[in-house]
Structure prediction request, 927 residues.
Amino acid sequence: MLIVTVMANEKKPGVFTGPLWTNNPVVVQVLGICSALAVTTQMKPALVMGISLTCVLAFANVIISVLRNTIPNRIRIIVQLVVVAALVIIVNQILKAYVYDVSKALSVYVGLIITNCILMGRLEAFALGNKPFPALLDGLGNGIGYALILFITATLRELFGSGTLFGYDVLARFVNEAGYDGYQNCGFFTMPAAALIIIGCIIWYQRAKNPDLQDK
Amino acid sequence: MKLNDYINEKIDPLFQKGGKYEKFWSIYDSFHTFLFVPRHTAARKGVQVHDSVDSKRVIMMVILALMPALLVGMWNVGYQHDLALGINDGWFMQFLYGLVAFLPKVVVSYVVGLGIEMTVACIKREEVAEGFLATGLLIPMIVPVNTPLWMIAVATAFSVIFAKEIFGGTGMNIFNPALITRAFLFFAYPKAMSGDEVFVRTGSALCNSPIEGTAVVDGFSGATPLAAVADGTFDPATYSTLDAFLGCIPGSIAETSTLAILLGACLLLLTRVASWRIMLSVFVGGAVMSAIIAAFSESAPTVAQQLCLGGFAFAAVFMATDPVTGCRTNTGKYIYGLFIGVMAILIRMFNTGYPEGAMMAVLLGNACAPLIDYCVVNSNISKRAKRVNA
Amino acid sequence: MHKTMNRNSNVYTVIYATVLTVLVAILLSAAALGLKDKQKANMDNEKKQQILQSVASKLGKTVTFENAADLWKELNMDDAMFCVNTKGEKVEGQTAFDIASKILFDKGKIKEDATLPVYVANIEGIPYRIVSLYGAGLWGPIWGYLSVDPEGKVAGVSFDHESETAGLGAKIKDDPAFAEAFIGKSLFTDGKFTSVSVTKAGKPANHGGEKVDAITGATKTSDYVGDMIWESLLGYVPFLQGATSPAGGCKKHEGCQKHEGCEKHEGCEKHEGCEKPCDMEGCQKEACTPEACGKPECKAQCGEKAECADKAECDACKKAE
Prediction:
């Protein structure tokens, strides 16, 4: 409710809610696909990646937005990169210190947040031209929108690919308890190609529901 | 009242626009055209060449051509079963065993595949396309005999939806749906697609449950020769090429007998259903590549063995020649065929993770086919342009 | 104010960039320093887990990331590790735990001058030597630890990998049955190093000796595991043989436990070829029976020893000599 009121005040409807679905960074803007394919084999890394990116994006958006009137135009991309890179390195260090197994699973992909198109896209397109608070909402919205798609993809991939959810044995046990012991997990879902197909299906579903998004 | 009239007058209107079962017109129509002459062979206006050979009949020809390989393959399933258990109950019982092992697979593949095709056709209000008639038979023929039925169902559904329907259905697909089914199985359930135990059924014919009082003979290995090649344990000198040619080796149902495949190839070529350019160039490409490899390595199979082993011949005759996914230009067909032949042997010999190179090679060829055609057409255009300008 | 803030001037740009860089550098150094200990502890913990995993069956419990550090302390592992060179001699001055197995290899072969880490886990009085393995897998590096009991038999293994196929090659780590198959296999045949091979079911071992069946559908990765064990252990062989071989060796204390009477180092060296349990004082008692006395080797032994159990027998020996 708070967010809705605030948005009404700012007269920027959809800054937060838009990126969640109708203007989702992954399935509509088609940004950040690389990491969406790479970290979605298991739910835990996907969730952590989503949270990490949301944090980095929100902070970076706010910082750039605060600095927006001081940043020299000629080096603005470099400044954005430095801010993002610093944030990413800090996130990476924290993951290594507190959730070691996840940081191992994410390996290079946390570092690759720096090059995630969503970040540079939002900084350049939104944070540089807006006040800190809308920038924060935009960062959170896009980050959560990204995390949402990652989470859906990872749920399907882990459930069918490994038969588990968050590492807990679900599918194989369920099938086996039902008295059928020939079940095998579908290794295809652990491959990046499966993520592409799942995201493709999400896009398919979304376009079917939203005629606005369909190509004319 | 004659049956024909009865159908036309009484049953047809039920499914026509405004009829009781209007929604199911696609399904009804597909059975009608399958059993009778197509309703309209030509549009009402314009000049057309008439031919009663529509794609349903072309596909019937493919299915006929598959028969020799299928029959020998079914016998071989029983033969390998007997070998494994050290018994011999005659060729007829062996054939019967293979038939019983094969039938459930073909039923599953048709029910799932056609079910999805008909549903989609009903939703889109289109005719049911006939492409799946051949695909549905090919699928159970190119998977190991011990593949569980539910896997075939999942893989068939995957390939019909993601390799065919999302591209627009029969005739629009980029990749060969039967091979996509196999590729999906290969990557999704690698355990069920490779190893010593999947190609030979040692249990009962229907569901492979162990038979009381039988045991696998000591020293019997159900590994395919290609698995031995990948292992590095293959010895070309002691291996019987004749067995591979006739089809008495472990393998998927359709791929074992090169002789039967060649019989099918004759039918396809005589009726001009398949392109001889593709077929020939695949074999040439494969032979050249295997000759090069055999010249450098003593443990590599000889040229004849390479062409007889695994799914190479089957892929060359039935998969590469698929007119939808292959090249359309004549020059393109040669390039396409050579590419598949060379790649099949290369993958087989140098990527030990994938002993069956033919499947990968044809899929790769499918992906390249439009590019090859594009280059051929463009070079032709520029050649002609030069001639005009000269 | 606005006059001094010309955002497009060179001076402003350079100063801005400098200040930003310095600020970020300070921030990052602070974060790195503050979290360093915790990160190191995590990495060490993972290594400890893998090392202890190789004796998990002897410990009788599973080793997890969480309990690895406690177990490590419980077994007093920090004091029970040392380094050896490829000749089997102890090397001082290096901490075994800090040696990365990767650097010990050159093109898949163990380096001549490598310093190899050894960890000893004393469980119920029996010392298990844990050695480190490293090699190439099908898609990336594979590594692990292998524990050897005093008789030269494998007491357990733990493998890990970077990128083997999930569900197939990855089973070297995920399938406990594969690791269990190694337990009890002897690394030596008649005092010769024969390793434990990994080959397809029904196929013989690569180097003679014992074997473990390859994982179905992952023959290649399994092959590489066998190669890794062979190549990695080659460097350890002099050390392991000196320490474990029951006959011939006896130069070190630990390996002698099965030998009654072999409490003293010095005495052990004299026991070459002595297969029967014997005791220091009355040595030759059992070997020097009248029947055995006729044999040349017994003559030699009897000649050196002043007193035999039975004087008459010994005299007979001397006479024969």
The CA atoms of residues 64 and 127 of chain A lie 6 Å apart. The mean pLDDT of chain A is 82. Residues 23-154 of chain A form one domain. The radius of gyration of chain A is 19 Å.
